[in-house]
Amino acid sequence: MNTAQHPTPDAPRDLVGIGIGPFNLSLAALADPLTGLDAVFYDQRPAFHWHPGLLIDGARVQVPFLADLVTLADPASPWTFLNHLRARERLFPFYFAERFHIERTEYDAYCRWVADNLPSLRFHHQVDAVRWNPERALFEVDYTQLDADGEAEALGRTHTRNVVLGVGTEPHIPDPLRPLVDDPTVPVIHAADYLAHRDTLLTAGHVTVIGTGQSGAETFLDLLRHRPAGREKLHWLGRTEAFAPMEYSRLGLEHFTPDYTRYFHGLAEPVRDRLVAAQWQLHKGIDTDTTTAIHDELYRRTLDGGWPDTTLTPGVHVRTAGRIATTRVELHLEHAQQKTRTRLTTDAVVLATGYRERPLGRVLAGLDPYMRRDSRERPRIDDRFRLVLDPSVTGSVYVQNAETHTHGVGAPDLGLAAWRSATILNDLTAQQPYPLPGRTAFTTFGLQNGQPQIPSARHHRTLTPLVDGI
Predict the structure, then answer these.
(1) Interaxial angle between packed helices 214-225 and 288-300, expressed in degrees from 0 to 180 and rounded to the nearest 10
(2) Is-contact 229 301, C-beta < 8 A?
(3) Which pLDDT belongs to residue 8?
(4) Which long-range contacts (CB under 8 A, 24 or more apart) does 130-137 make?
(5) Rounded to an integer, what distance in angstroms lies between the CA atom of residue 213 and that of residue 182?
(6) Which residue in 260, 258, 256 sits closest to 246, CA to CA?
(7) Rounded distance, CA 258 to CA 229, Å?
């Protein structure tokens, strides 16, 4: 465990992390044993909690437990999921359970165990601005320290040689429904807040779930299981043309390897944009276990000869929406293939409409003069996960889960967290504290000089101990 103390209040740090989600938590865990690295991570929340509104009983993480915070970069780390089980005396029960995919509640508990034990994390700290100080050749990070109620308690400033952004994503609300979500008298919520409103939704007369991805499926299944047979009164709809399964073939999963990430980064910007849009089924479909459970539950409700009072309609989008009286919602729907329109009146709406990368503009406004952007005004990000800045900026700003446009569908995937964190630390230290494999996929992505581009099967690096200072 890294017990190095910050030398003096005015001494610059080596790294300041902004946001403590799974990705920056991974980076903090892998940085912990590097005794020469002075790092601190800030988050405005009071503690770590991973998607608390979607910790539905039985819902599982869609990557294997080996895709924890550290294992795929350092399986000997004290912060592995298996070591978490050992510390909780649960290793043998897990062994006999034979679970390759763990429940979300268990992944959340694991991450909270890591967060509770890492000394570099600072919760109740809201980062307000990041600037480059050319005189000192350092970044200035302004923050507000919050009290237990989330109110401002003190202001502070940290100087650092490098910054890593891990501010995560935020719930996406379609424009036609935004006024209803903003109105507290109307029962329209995002799935991110599902569990907080679950009791109200279970007693509502009719509930509509919008969104045909994994969170929509899990929400629909949970509601279905807890509403009476024959009186379910559930409608599930979404824009995709089918309740499509997620791509989970072995070779399909190789799109979530470092090999593919490097290949994708080397493509032209227009090609990357077309690919991201076309590859939605790699990460936005529904896993087969969930679709099977939904069908099984619907089938069970036909055993007495009737049909459940449910409607499942893909290929539909919401054109407009409004209130009826004070408690009901009217949705104006259009079917993409039929070009037909209709209205749906419902008592509650759950928006399983996904998440979007949080805009970086507020925090990084002070760096805007130095940032290089692409043709769509998005930040350019190099192959080592650094913002492309003016050469006069000698420090680095790394990004985590804000680089889908440059690195592809693997950017938000938990399975690449440890590899990306190790890549960042290797670059940051100018050493190789975490040797990484040269080849990670059987698939050869792309051609080079008219021949297949084949990564080296073996790529050895010498592990050099990190000395104090970088």
Answers:
(1) 30
(2) yes
(3) 59
(4) 130/18, 130/163, 130/363, 130/364, 130/366, 130/367, 130/397, 131/366, 131/367, 132/366, 132/367, 132/370, 132/393, 132/395, 133/159, 134/392, 136/12, 137/394, 137/395
(5) 23
(6) 256
(7) 47
Cα–Cα distance list, 254 to 246, 282, 414 (Å): 14, 10, 14
SS3 for 230? coil
Indicate the length of the chain as a whole number: 470
Q: CB of 396 within 8 A of CB of 428?
A: yes
Q: pLDDT tens across 6-39, in order?
A: 455 579 999 999 999 999 999 999 999 999 999 9
Strand 162-165 vs strand 396-399: parallel, antiparallel, or unpaired? parallel
Report yes or no: 40 and 122 within 8 Å, Cβ to Cβ: yes
Type of residue found at 217: A
**CB-based burial label for 5 (10 Å; 0-12, 13-18, 19+):** exposed
Rounded Cα distance, 296 and 292, in Å: 6
Closest of 262, 255, 246 to residue 214, by C-alpha: 246
Nearest to 401 by CA among 15, 45, 16, 19: 19
> Of 139, 121, 120, whose CA–CA distance to 130 is shortest?
139
Measured CA angle at 282 (ends 280, 288), to 5 deg:
115
Please give the Cα distance from 85 to 300 (Å, whole number): 36
Place of tokens 């379609």: 174
Alpha-carbon distance of 465 to 77, in angstroms, equals 15
435-462 pLDDT tens trace: 999 999 999 999 976 566 655 444 433 3
- Tokens of residue 367, six digits: 């760096």
- Tell me whether strands 207-210 and 188-190 are parallel, antiparallel or unpaired: unpaired
CA distance 65 to 284: 20
Residue whose structure tokens are 């409004």: 322
Distance CA 226, CA 174 (A): 27
DSSP 8-state code for residue 463: -
Is 31:425 a contact under the CB 8 Å cutoff?
yes
pLDDT digits (tens, 9 = 90+) for 343-401: 999 999 999 999 998 888 888 999 999 999 999 999 999 999 999 999 999 999 999 99
C-beta separation of 438 from 296 below 8 A: no
Helix (H) or strand (E) holding 259: helix 258-265
Question: In the 8-state DSSP scheme, what is residue 377?
Answer: S
Q: With DSSP H G I counted as helix, E B as strand and the rest as coil, what are the percentages for the chain, rounded to 5?
A: 30, 25, 45
What distance in Å separates the CA atoms of residue 408 and residue 427, rounded to the nearest whole number?
21
Of 384, 427, 431, residue with least CA distance to 15: 427
So what's the pLDDT on residue 465? 38
Cross-strand partners of 399: 165
Query: How many CA atoms lie less than 13 Å away from 389 in the CB half-sphere?
Result: 22
Tokens of 221: 């299944």
